[in-house]
Specification:
heterodimer, A: mainly alpha, about 0% strand, globular, B: about 70% helix, elongated
């Protein structure tokens, strides 16, 4: 077990280094002069140019530059945004709670519906319900989510007027940002109406973002359940005369959940990618929207830092899921 | 009486060729049976676009801005699926969009397939340090969210359809590399391969006769799945303004340029999405069927 842990963590380091190399070259491979890119739209005088060249270390060898970049990244310095002139890390940390809140609600939505749907589909294999779940999840999986988000807006915001079109909270409400999570902050402020408004704002983006994870979880749960239901010990449990509910939930589901937990963990990557599209459509002030806007504005330090952090989050979560998988699945541990 | 000896039964038991066997297995899957003709239809529409489209997709009918589809009030037979904000025929734009979206997706998959198989074969043959380096780079690419990686590539190269295609191909590459390498490593350890090598077969010949037949099935399945994600990713990049640029009638670009008319003319947003969904769904259904039919090991 310990060996597995060390081996897995050992894999993280080269992957992280690789991503720093990618982020490092991002600015250097981009068309145009990196100093002009870093200086932004206004441009610089020849004198200032030379000064910046030395300041950013472009006069030194690539290796030295990379080493400098790596050490500053490791000490938490991700550069300064060209547009806002604030450190990229600060900007990221300000916006991250919004994305985290959206992603959390989205994955809760996906698990709450996907898991029971998958279990029921497996238990009633080849029933109408099974076909409906499998059909719907395949459609969900094949859906361009930006289009799905627009359809939701069209139906629930524009036509029915049930949900707000965009944003996190109505301008009416003024809530002190404490945690950055709107649901928590409105509760801390003791403002029930603002809480309901924040929840309202979350519904559509969370559904849009949670649809692909929902489809994946439902399909995975079903196939994993089907496999487990075929096992001898499930037949034994049935033969002992245990109630079907008990067999399904106590004997089968617990084992069937092992691969499902892994799949849920792997959705982090899907959620962060989906956040770019969903946040853009719903004007959700999170890192997805920020990253895309940084690209439009050619704010390379922001893009560089943002990509590095997002990729690191994905790697860390994936590693964690992998270790968790070994913890809950004794068969992996032995290897 | 005498039933067992009837000639009918004997012919029914006659062994089938590989194609017959494949088809027998493929047609078990209802979804796959629906997916195949749908995709074939889409491909035909793409190929014969200039003959099928009622109008030139770029022509602006200045007397008909935002005309709704024929089944809605105010719709006319002149424009079956209505027109967009510049008076361009939606049906024609969607038909030509099929041309762009499908051919780009195909090119992307071919690119990823060709490079993926070559790099994977190289890694599996060379072993040692090069293999470790290649596979670590592939793991790293898989660790990054696909669309994010594509966006980064486009951000570096600049926004255009060709760059978006390269970006998506890069994203799809690692899967092909992994399949090929794994198969090269496992097959070349077999006795019959050693025997062939002792007979004097070179690495290229070994790859062709020992490895390629073994990876054909998983590669076809992977290529089908890659095709559907290529369509989605290209459309997403187009939607974000990082792929095909207007007025190119690529499906994702169509969607993004009509976003502001979602209230007045919802069909300009819904129809391109339906086209994407139907194509991707058909491809995924076909992929499921192909996986079951071609690769029993992957059967779920």
């Amino acid at each position: 077990m310990l060996l597995h842990l060390f081996r897995r963590i050992g894999l993280v380091i080269p992957t992280f280094l690789g991503i720093t190399v990618l982020a490092f070259f991002l600015i250097r491979l981009a068309p145009g002069d990196p100093i002009l890119l870093l200086a932004g739209e206004r441009g610089v005088s020849a004198e200032r140019y030379e000064q910046l060249r030395i300041q950013f270390g472009f006069d030194r060898s690539l290796w030295v530059q990379y080493w400098d970049y790596l050490t500053s990244v490791l000490s938490g310095d991700l550069g300064v945004s060209v547009v806002s002139k604030t450190p990229v890390l600060t900007e990221f940390l300000n916006l991250f709670p919004a994305t985290l809140e959206l992603a959390t609600v989205a994955i809760i939505f996906a698990v709450l519906i996907g898991l029971p749907a998958g279990v029921l589909a497996a238990v009633r294999r080849n029933s109408l319900f099974d076909y409906a779940v499998m059909g719907t999840s395949l459609v969900g999986y094949s859906m361009p989510i930006f289009w799905w988000a627009l359809l939701l807006v069209l139906l629930f915001s524009v036509n029915l007027g049930w949900m707000p079109v965009a944003g996190r909270l109505d301008f009416m409400y003024d809530v002190e940002p404490v945690t950055g999570f709107m649901l928590v902050d409105t509760l801390l402020a003791g403002d029930g109406e603002a809480f309901r408004d924040a929840l309202h704002h979350l519904v559509l983006p969370a559904i849009a973002l949670g649809t692909i994870p929902l489809a994946v979880i439902a399909r995975m749960t079903r196939s994993s359940m089907l496999e487990v239901l075929r096992e001898d010990y499930v037949r034994t449990a049935r033969a002992k005369g245990l109630s079907p509910m008990r067999v399904v939930f106590k004997h089968a589901l617990r084992n069937a959940l092992i691969p499902v937990v892994t799949v849920i963990g792997l959705q982090v990557s899907v959620l962060l990618t989906g956040a770019i599209l969903t946040e853009t459509i719903f004007s959700w002030p999170g890192i997805g929207k920020w990253l895309l806007e940084s690209i439009y504005r050619r704010d390379y330090p922001a893009v560089q830092g943002g990509v590095l952090i997002v990729a690191s989050i994905v790697i860390i979560v994936n590693t964690f899921v992998d270790i968790l998988y070994a913890v809950i699945n004794p068969r992996i541990r032995r290897r | 009486m005498g039933k067992l000896g009837s000639s009918k039964l004997i012919t029914a038991n006659a062994p089938k060729g590989p194609w017959g066997e494949f088809w027998d297995s493929y047609r078990q899957n209802l979804g796959a049976l629906i997916g195949l003709p749908t995709l074939v239809l889409m491909v035909l529409v793409a190929v014969f676009a200039p003959w099928l489209a009622p109008y030139d997709p770029a022509i602006q009918h200045t007397d008909a801005f935002l005309v709704p589809p024929v089944w809605q009030d105010g719709g006319s037979m002149r424009f079956w699926l209505g027109t967009d904000d510049l008076g361009r025929d939606m049906l024609s734009r969607l038909i030509f969009g099929a041309r762009f979206s499908l051919s780009i997706a195909l090119a992307v998959v071919m690119l990823a397939l060709a490079f993926g198989v070559s790099i994977g074969a190289l890694a599996g043959t060379l072993r040692g340090i090069p293999e470790i380096v290649i596979m670590r780079i592939m793991d790293m690419m898989l660790a990054l969210p696909a669309l994010l990686l594509a966006i980064v590539v486009v951000a570096v190269l600049g926004a255009s359809l060709v760059n978006a295609a390269i970006a998506v191909a890069v994203v799809l590459l690692p899967h092909f590399v992994r399949i090929t390498r794994a198969s090269v490593v496992s097959e070349t350890a077999r006795d019959y391969v050693t025997a062939t090598r002792l007979d004097g077969a070179g690495p290229v010949r070994l790859f062709r006769i020992a490895v390629l037949p073994n990876i054909a099935a998983p590669l076809i399945v992977q290529a089908t799945l890659a095709f559907s994600s290529a369509i989605l990713d290209i459309a997403a990049l187009g939607f974000l303004g990082l792929g095909a640029q207007p007025p190119t009638p690529e499906w994702g670009t169509l969607l993004s340029s009509s976003r502001e008319f979602i209230q007045r003319a919802p069909w300009t947003v819904t129809l391109p999405g339906v086209a994407i969904l139907v194509t991707v769904l058909a491809t995924n259904l076909m992929g499921d069927g192909l996986r079951d039919a071609l690769d029993p090991r992957l059967k779920r």
